[in-house]
Structures are given as structure tokens and as C-alpha cells.
Amino acid sequence: MKYFLQVEGGRNFEIEVEDGVGGHCVVHVGGRQLEADFLDVDRLGQYTAILNGRSFAASIEEDDAQHLRVNIAGETFTVVAMDEREKAAGDVAAQSGPKAEVIKASMPGVLISVTAKEGDLLSPGEAVAVLEAMKMQNEVACQHGGVVAEVLVEAGQSVDANQVLLRLQPPPAED
Amino acid sequence: MSVEARPIRKLLIANRGEIAVRIQRSCRDLGIETVAIYSDVDRHALHVRYANEAYPLGGNTPAESYLRADRILQIAKRCKVDAIHPGFGFLAENGEFAQAVAAAGMCFVGPSAHAMAVMGDKLASRQAMLAAKVPVVPGGTEAVADVQAAKKAAAAIGYPVMLKASAGGGGKGIRVVPCAEDMEAAFLTASGEAQNAFGDGRMYLEKYLLEPRHIEIQVLGDLHGNVLHFGERECSLQRRHQKLIEEAPSPIIDEETRQRMGEAAVAAAKAVDYHSAGTVEFLWSQGEFYFLEMNTRIQVEHGITEEVYGVDLIAQMIRIAAGESIADCVGCMPRGHAIEVRLNAEDPENQFMPSLGTIRNLRWPGGPGVRIDSGVYRSMEVTPYYDSMLAKLIAYGSTREQARRRMLRVLQELHVGGVKTSAGIALQVLQTEAFRSGQYDTGFLEKFMEQRQQLPIARDIPDDLEEVAAVVAALHRQKTAARRVLAQPSSAQANPWLLAARREQHGGVCS
Fold first, then answer.
1. Which CATH architecture has domain B10-109?
2. Which residues contact B119 (CB under 8 A, 6 or more apart)?
3. Does residue A27 sit at the B interface (CB-CB below 8 Å)?
4. How many other C-beta atoms lie within 10 A of the C-beta of residue B139?
5. How far apart are CA B51 and CA B67, in angstroms?
6. Angle separating helix axes B113-120 and B122-131, nearest 10 degrees
7. CATH number of the domain where residue A145 is located
8. How far apart are CA A92 and CA B296, in angstroms?
9. Please, are residues B311 and B230 in contact by the beta-carbon 8 Å criterion?
10. Distance (Å) from the C-alpha of residue B173 to the closest C-alpha of chain A?
11. pLDDT digits (tens, 9 = 90+) for B170-218
12. What's the CA gap between A130 and B166, in Å, rounded?
């Protein structure tokens, strides 16, 4: 099978994994061929990989099949791993233009203030609220920006992780 | 001075997590029984399991649990402890609590309420230090009433200025204000944060020093009037005033400066008749040092001083509370170098926001020169109720470079899953030229976080780990795809037992 991998903040890779026996298989990456031996150690997320004789202890956490966090030798890489079918579906979705943004609480806490109001035009990265958790106040910011369509929370309110705080519409097109 | 010796045989620890376990360990070494207290979410915590006795406080938030001085005293009296150690945070710097403990006939393992009161108030401590001829940072000693007063005071000192909470600590309620236009927003958020955290929103101003380093001196004082210092800790690698990496000794402090800073720290402690363990924090800038504050408690990073001086500071605190003298520590000399990394449950890619979850994939490092002080266990829930620190990783070496190499090893061996941690960033920082050369200030970590994608890192790790991670991810997908195919029900009445058995048979196959 062929896989398309994007390392967050890093490079993209196209990797072909040939069928093998046991943990053994052959991997093609960047025009090179690797003899791989890859085994699940404890069924709890720890893996051992030997690639052309070099040994790596990895731990892997899965958000879902495509979204992985791989920890090797103290460094954590956030990886989006797609097979050919998923890649094709992703390419189609990417062509459908800018998307509406949803701003969520990244953790449970109490909203100290909510500064964005309906109709505000937000630039990318602009702060919309202040959330207090673990005794620290943290700014909540939008990613892509846009026009605030809906404010679903108010200051003083407790929120859960991933609770939707605001909905944005794409910014008006520039001519 | 005559001090009545009061043997301590049983001690209650008014804290949780890593520091509670740390105190229990010293108690074990001293043959002292320990009593733990716990909130509802902490029923499984290590400090409960390591204790000789454990009693519930109820509740989850600090206010409902570890800040309930009344309940803690009740438990202490009921199980007849000789002493209470407050750890750090919670009630550690609460003078009323210290007095209540003493009034109930028990030893408070910490300084006097008077020392806490003076040093806990930034303005009062500045005035006391000025009187004791300890150098302080230029700035006002009066709290500023509002934004207008703050602007006026800042103009007199000259921008940039630091805006600080009078009752502050732990980085809350502190802002750097580069110019007058930013004062209003900074004043309101910092004052609000201070009001929330300490119930006191008063603010004051200080000159913001150029390329400052945060260097602190560990002191111990006893009830016989002895005060000793145990050298410095370099704590400049911090972000939003939360420390990430500390080391002892500081790479830029020479013997002569160490003596001068040590003497200033001892003078600071003596000015408030200090006893127990304490830390005098200084800002060091261009060869000069200035008193910042004194923390009247044991500090998170005490372990690196312990490694370098071969002293157990927690055990010393308990001995001091029991009325013993620290005269036997005179002449304690530093040896070698120690580095600490704070393992916090936080997301460096997302402004170091706390990262909550269940701990999985836990693998601790070991080997020569490694010390792990931790409160973490597999399947532990990281909750929003308490501090995000999971563990302290300490590497000791006979030289700074050996300690650095050992810390790289520690961070490579460590695995913590289920939450995001500060370990990866620490690993990168340890490999920067700034860290290798020791030329860094308190602004370095912030700058590093902004620029690290562009910065060339002289890496100690030879492999292209990014490619390895991609290959591992691809292998993982292939493996799980194979498993999912095998787990597909073959008919409508698929039997889960059969499926499980089939999965077990084929589980080891990487097709």
C-alpha cells in the first residue's frame, strides 16, 4: 500500500509499504528501500521498529486512523497519514474553497472574558476570549479568521474541552 | 538562644502529587510516619498509596480540598501528628495557617508567619531589603491605584517596565509593558488575574532589566540563629515566568559573585529572622544582581541543589522544625553539575496550554546520574484542578557537559503518552548553541519558540527522526488496516467471541 504522510511543521512523505510476513516488510521512501521489522510491544501504544538495522523505540497515539502522534527518542511528531483513497478524497475537499471556522475551547475552564461580538471581522490569529484553567489565563484565538456569525458563550461561563465557543463565516472575498 | 527539641515521629503532608511523594521519601529515610490527605479525584494518587495513613478532604478544586485549613487541622489533631509540612503552593505561604498549626501544639515545617508576611508582600519585602542593604531592582515601592497612576509611575521609571501583583507568585499577575499605549490592557488583565488567584488585585511597577537572568540562592536557617546558603540555581529558561529548565551552578556565576550573592541572600534571610528552607531570587543583568523576592518555602527546583551539595533539603527542614541545629552543614561544598527539566502536561505547539488526559505509554528513564521525582503513574487522569507539573527530571554529572548529555539521554528514554508534555521542547533547547555555551537570558525561551523552525540546531541525535516517524506511521497504518480487515464481521450474526479469538490468532501479523 502507498501512504501520504504530512508531518506537522515538517516535510511531506510518500511511502510505499510492501506486504510482508510477521513484522517484516519492505518500505520505499525517498527513492530508497528499507528492510523494516515493526512490532507492537504491549498493545498499549509502544512499538519497536528496526529499519535497515537501526533500532527505534516508538510510541504511537491515534486520534483516529489518519491522525497520529509518533514519539521517537523524545521527539513527538504529529502526522497525518492517508492512504491513496483518503488522499484523493482530501484533494477534492480542498478545492471547494475557504471554510467556515469553528472556535472551540481547547480544555475545560472558565471564560474570563469574551471579546468578539457578532459581525466582527477577525484577522487570522486574533484573540476572541480569555479562558482560565489550571490557575492560568490563556487567550483563545481564531485560526483563519472571518466574520463572527454566532457567539455561543458569555464571560463567567464554565466550558468543557472541545465545546464550541464561536462560529465564523469566511471573510468576504477580496477583489 | 535555647530552643526546646521536639522529636517528630509522625508528619502530615498538606499537599499532593509530586512534592507530597518527595516529602514522604525523606520521612521514610528519617523513620517518620506520614499522613496523606486527598481530594476526591486524588483517591488513586501516589501520595495516598505511599503514605502510612490517608484521610479524605472531599471536593476537587483547591478551595474545596487542599486549601481547607480547618479540615486539615482537624485531621492532624485527630491522628496526633507532631508536624505539618505544607510543600509548595496551597497553604505553604499562608501565615495564618502556620500560626494555627503552632497554636494547636504542632510544628509547622516552614518559616515563621512574620517572615512569610514580610516576604510575601512584594512592597514590604522591598522596603525590608533596602533597610538590610540588599540591592533591589529600581522601581516604586508603592502600589499603584489605577491605570492612570501606573502610567505616571512608569513614565518616572522609564519604559519598558514590569507590572507585578503585590501578592503575586508563580508567574500570575505579571506583565511586561513596553510602552504607555499597552499599559491599560496589561494593567486590567494582570490585575484581574491577581484578583482571581490571590484575592488581591494590587499592582506595582519595576524597571525592566536588559537581558536579565533569573538566578536564585538556596538558604537554610535554623531556630538557633544560623543561616547558611547553598549556592545558586540558574532559572532563566522560563516562559511566561514558568520555569522549564534549571541548572546548578549557573554557567555565568564565578566564585566571587557566588560569595557576594550568597552573602546578600543570607542578609535577606536574617532581616526577617528566617528559619527553614527558603529561596532568595535575584535578577542578574550585566554583572549586577538585584533582589527580586524571597520564596518562603521549599521550591520545585530544590533537587538540583541537593544533587550538587549532597544535602537533603526536605530532611533539613524537618530537622530544623524539630529544633535541631544546621551547624553540621557548615562547610558543605558544591560538586559537579545538575540540570532539571520540568515535565509538564502542556502543549508547546499551542502556547503551552495545559494538556489534559489519561497517562498512557509511561516509560521512565534510568541509569547513572538520573533522578526522577514524580507523582505520575500509568492511567493517571491529568485534571484541570491542579498544577500541570507531572514530574521533575534531574541529571547529575561531574561536569556541565556530562549533565547535559545525561539529560539528553533521559529525554530520549522517556515516554509519556495520553497528554502532550514539555519534554520535546526541552530536548531541543538543550541542543541549542545558547544552552551549550550558557549564554541565555529570561527572554531566550520565548524567542526560541518563535524562531525555532528557522533555527539551525546543532543536533546530538544523528538520525532523521522526521522521516523515521513518517515510516513508523505508515507501518502502523498498514498494520491496523490489516487488523481492521480481519475484524470485519463475515456475516450478520458475527460472534464477538469468535472475532476476538480470530484477532488473537492474527494479531502479530504485519501483512
1. 3-Layer(aba) Sandwich (3.40)
2. B125, B128, B272, B278, B293, B294, B295, B296
3. yes
4. 20
5. 20
6. 100
7. 2.40.50.100
8. 61
9. yes
10. 10
11. 677 888 899 899 999 999 888 888 888 888 888 989 888 889 999 999 9
12. 22
* B234, β-bridge pairs: B215, B247
Strand positions, DSSP E, B183-252: 203-207, 213-221, 227-239, 242-248
Name every chain A residue with its beta carbon within 8 A of the beta carbon of B191: none
| B233 counts as catalytic | no
Q: Which of B297, B342, B406, B409 is catalytic?
A: B297
Tell which of B381, B419, B465 to mutate to test the A interface (max A CBs under 10 Å): B465
The reply to whether residue B388 touches residue A39, judged by beta carbons under 8 angstroms, is: no
- Do A38 and B475 count as a contact with CB atoms less than 8 A apart? yes
Distance, first Cα to last Cα, chain B: 79
Looking at the domain assignment, is residue A175 inside a domain?
no
CATH, range B336-462: 3.30.470.20
In which domain, by residue range, is A68 found?
2-94
ipTM computed for the complex: 0.71
Residue of B nearest to A70 (CA): B469
Task: Report residue A33 as a C-alpha cell.
Answer: 528501500
CATH of B138-207, one of 3.30.565.10, 3.30.470.20, 3.30.1490.20, 3.40.1410.10: 3.30.1490.20
Count structural domains, chain A.
Answer: 2
CB atoms under 10 Å from CB of A154, counted, come to 10
User: Which residue of B lies nearest to A18 if distances are taken between CA atoms?
Assistant: B511
Look up residue B416 and give its amino acid: V
The whole-model pTM stands at 0.80
Q: What is the pLDDT of residue B470?
A: 96
Calpha distance B254→B354 (Å, rounded): 37
Tens-digit pLDDT profile for residues B391-406: 999 999 999 999 999 9
Domain ranges of chain B: 10-109, 138-207, 210-335, 336-462, 470-506
Question: Is A107 in contact with B355 (Cβ distance < 8 A)?
Answer: yes
Alpha carbon of B80 to those of B65, B90, B324: distances in Å? 20, 22, 21
Report d(CA B159, CA B168) in Å as an integer: 21
Q: Within chain A, how many helices (H) and strands (E) appear?
A: 1, 16
